[in-house]
Amino acid sequence: MNKYVFFFLSIIIFSCNSNQNNDSAIAQPKENNSLSLTEYWSYPNEEMKYTGGIKMIPISTPKGEFKVWTKTMGNNPTMKVLLLHGGPGMTHEIYECFNSWFPQEGIEFIYYDQLGSYYSDQPSDTSLWTIERFVDEVEQVRTALNLDSENFYLFGQSWGGILAMEYALKYQNNLKGLIISNMMASIPEYNKYAHEVLGPQLPPDVLKEIMEMEKNEDYENPRYAELLMEYHYTEHVLRKPIDQWPEAVNRGLKHMNPEVYIYMQGYSEFGISGDATLKEWDRTQNISEIKVPTLVIGSSHDTMDPKHMEWMASEIPYSDFLLCPEGSHLSQYDDQKTFFNGLINFIKDVDSGDFQKM
């Protein structure tokens, strides 16, 4: 069996028999800018009204022109949040819970599938899967959506956090605010945390079995996916039993593009190894060059080291750190109140000019 096929099938197994079980809670953020519902859902042009906010954006690349999928939710002239999904190769679907929080606060947000992801074009060309090209893609999306320093907030989680940092380091003059969620500034440091901290938290016999399969590159072994599901994902990716994972998350996993994911991230779920192109990525020496207001979000049970992310916030001149104590890698689901209250308050503080580094 081809490794790509196995990886894809393991995700389907991983996400079967699940039910939607999101916690619903009302945030208690600061006052919004008093947009009425009519104003919030009044799209600025007829095309967006006709498509329900969906726009396929042409993207120029060294290998020709392709299109990426976006969907704008709401309309606010000063608070527009572009969501960068993880993976690489995942989809916008894991952010569908934002529907329950942002509209009632008057915050416009834009779903976006990066090139290669399910709702966008999916060229099969590994030369396109570079950080530099993805950064250029985000800039083209920004331009097409008329986002600028008066309204543009960039949210990136996991791989999207890498992309958000890289975008800010190149184009921060275009940003009003930046959110780096559940992503460290160094893959080598992430690998170290995975092996020295997360691995030893597993039962010794389970860790030994997983490491043996990784050593032998036996990723096609169904036992590999089984152990990760039972002992790793429900502790550090989303802290709910597998059969209670939200339908949107499972759908996003089913729609993931394994070609992009494996080329950049690799097969291992304990760090990044092998020939994966992100293996040596590190911005610890540059993170302080980000000057725009920034929120760094970490979680106590994350695959990423929350202490490292707190350090990141201390390095960025105008930043704050939000810890989700009950959360893991997808803290928008397993620590929703903390995650969304902190995120909404940050956006509104920046919008009102009240944001101050803690």
UniProtKB/TrEMBL annotation:
AB hydrolase-1 domain boundaries: 81-335
Hydrolase keyword on record: yes
PROSITE patterns associated with the record: PROKAR_LIPOPROTEIN
Keyword Hydrolase attached: yes
Keywords for the protein's UniProt record, in alphabetical order: Hydrolase
Molecular function terms, GO-annotated: hydrolase activity
Family designation: Belongs to the peptidase S33 family.
UniProt protein name: Proline iminopeptidase-family hydrolase
Biological source species: Mangrovivirga halotolerans
Source organism phylogeny: Bacteria, Pseudomonadati, Bacteroidota, Cytophagia, Cytophagales
